[in-house]
Write a structure and sequence with these properties.
The protein is of the alpha+beta class. It has three helices and five strands. The protein is globular, with a radius of gyration of 12 Å. The protein binds FE2/S2 (inorganic) cluster (FES). FE2/S2 (inorganic) cluster binds next to loops. This is 2Fe-2S iron-sulfur cluster binding domain-containing protein.
């Protein structure tokens, strides 16, 4: 299992066991992580699964694909480390990943 930690805007950290091959968003929803709405169910068409990837993990998670970048235009308070969590696939290399949830989605 791969551990992923979600940190909310108040600084509360929640760590979940994520299954390889799933997405970061799916693990957030499955574990009831507050602040991840994922209205489109992972189709990259809602931008309500927006997270900030912790700096040290940015090279591991990689950059958004063009479709994700387009959707990020609809997200609130987008930053250079913004990603849509439904577009981050869980791999063994992501063990220990830390992402932060925004103050609000959309
Ligand atoms: S769940 Fe809709 S864009 Fe990620």
């Amino acid at each position: 299992m791969v551990k992923i930690t979600f940190v909310d805007p108040e600084g509360t950290a929640r760590t979940v066991d994520a299954e390889e091959g799933s997405t970061v968003m799916e693990n957030a929803v499955r574990n009831g992580i507050p602040g991840i709405e994922a209205e489109c169910g992972g189709a990259c068409s809602c931008a309500t699964c927006h997270v900030y990837v912790d700096e040290e993990w940015e090279t591991v998670t990689g950059s958004p694909q063009p479709m994700e970048e387009d959707m990020l235009d609809f997200a609130y308070d987008v930053r250079p480390n913004s990603r849509l969590s439904c577009q981050i696939r869980v791999t063994p290399e992501l063990d220990g990943l830390v992402v932060r949830t925004p103050i609000r989605q959309g």
